[in-house]
Each structure stands twice: as C-alpha cells, then as structure tokens.
Design brief:
single chain; mainly beta; 11 strands
Length: 122
Amino acid sequence: QVQLQACGGGLVQAGGSLRLSCAPSGGAFSSYGVGWFRQAAGKEREFVARLTYTGIALYADSVKGRFTISRDNAAKTVYLQMNSLKPEDTAVYYCAARDAVTERASREWNWWGQGTQVTVSS
C-alpha cells in the first residue's frame, strides 16, 4: 500500500513563493513517477508538473519557469517549489504517484494524496 500526504499549502501574496511537500509511505518511492495536480474552485483537476520514473521533469505551460518539481529519495519526499505565484494559481494541490509500468502504459496514476490549499491574493 502507498499513501501520500501533501503539506505546505497556505496563503501568500502574488509574487510570493511556497514549497509543497508530498511524503509517501510504503512502496518503492525511488522507482515511482510523481506528479502534482491542482483543482481550482469550480474547475476540473489539471496537471501541474510531473517527474517521470526515469528522472525527467515536465510542466504545464501555465507554470513552466515558475514551478520546479524535485524529489529527495533519501527523505522519500517530492517537492513543488512555486515561485512568482499568481492569483490564478489558487487551488487545492494534490500529489500523485505511479509505478513504472503504469507510467509507460498510460496517463493514469496509481495513488493520490489529500489536497493542500494554496491561496494567492492580489
């Protein structure tokens, strides 16, 4: 079993920064692809960033250049560093993970964490 816990959300002014953390328990963390998604009020969940199981980082166009996804295998933690935040970044952010087989075969994710609220004020 794999469980994910997202932390680090909060209230920040536009132009500020936040770092989200996602700490999985169970499973072979270093072998998994990891990702971040967000869901704004009244909107569907959308992709934000992911780190493939092979180590390649990919980002949504809306956050490219501002957000950075990274991982610390020793700490079994994935991070989302968010800089130059905008009000439109306001959303509940979710971390996700998937094994290599799932990643190679589909766009699906095996495990999802609880969301953490990020609110950016103007």
